[in-house]
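Hello Y.,

Per our agreement to keep a running log of every chain we model this quarter, I'm adding this entry. I've kept the format consistent with earlier entries: sequence first, then predicted structure.
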Amino acid sequence: METANLKLCLFEQLAQIGKSLGHANRLMILDILAQAPQHVETLSNKLQLSIANVSKHLQSLKQAGLVICEKNGSQRIYRLSTPEIVPLIHAMRQVAEQQMAEVSQILHQQLNPKAPLMPFNPKELKKHLDANEITLLDVRPEDEYQFGHIKGSINIPIDQLADKMPMLPKDKPLIVYCRGPYCLWSYQAVEQLNQQAFQASRMAQGYPDWQTLPQS
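Predicted structure for the entry above:
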């Protein structure tokens, strides 16, 4: 094969990944799979999409090499094919926030004012957790928390927060995180908590992005 054709072939393969990423529902599927592997039925429930629709999107992601499928008895479990997908999605978000006015407007005018950002980097956060100076709250579903979470955090899923809010301390700051910066649960949680006189702020990152940061 000639050099020019080889180059074209390589970029065509890259284009397959770009094509697969070019749908909002597929990006949301990757966002959930970055938290934990999922059954098709669970993804369907979390996304409020039909099983047939979710399966179609998963096949596109699988063909592009972005997810893999494993059998567990009669069920199929999907997971990210590589951890490198997390920084790939992060890079897409950064470009969108810098270059797309609508994305920037939603974040800076509609969402960020409702939920102040926490002032800590990973090293500082660990220091405050070790000193028991803050409470770190994970508002993702329990299955995602059980698969992986920031050490020292407690889990109260967003749909249980109102009932379990009295269990949380008011004498120290609350730091809230969820799936990522486009996950609205952390914004909702911080807003609800501060309305009840808590000292709440949110993390800029979700759990998957947090794992990619230097921890020392």
